[in-house]
Backbone:
């Protein structure tokens, strides 16, 4: 608890001014936090990065932090979400060529629906994310 120098009222540890008289209690930040994904620095009370949503770690000026603006795993997920349905379309064409029309058509239709859904979800996430 912090004690007000003017009225001796008890205040919370995170308060910068007295709740009763409004006197300034002094600085609160004893340390800062940094986002390991994007490198933004925050006050000690912050828990999650406003820019990318990453968790924050305690910041020290003498530590060399490594962070990256790109997330390669997301890139590969987009590639795989398009690659597997394309393989399904190719297999569907092979089955149609073998005169197995029902299996070929269902593979092609399912693959096209999956591609459209993955494109829609990708556009949705890209429009909601401030990093892209």
Residues:
């Amino acid at each position: 608890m912090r004690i007000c120098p003017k009225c001796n009222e008890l205040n919370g540890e995170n308060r910068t001014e007295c709740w009763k008289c409004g006197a300034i209690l002094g600085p609160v930040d004893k340390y800062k936090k940094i986002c390991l994904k994007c490198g933004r620095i925050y006050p000690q009370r912050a828990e999650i990065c406003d820019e990318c949503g990453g968790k924050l770690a305690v910041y020290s000026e003498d530590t060399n932090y490594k962070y990256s603006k790109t997330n390669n795993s997301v890139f590969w997920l987009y590639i795989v979400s398009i690659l597997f349905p394309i393989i399904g379309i190719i297999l569907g064409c092979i089955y149609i060529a073998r005169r197995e029309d029902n299996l070929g058509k269902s593979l092609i239709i399912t693959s096209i629906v999956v591609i459209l859904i993955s494109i829609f979800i990708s556009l949705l996430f890209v429009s909601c994310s401030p990093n892209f």
Remarks:
- Residues 52 and 129 are 8 Å apart (CA to CA).
- The two ends are 43 Å apart (CA to CA).
- Residues 72-128 form one domain.
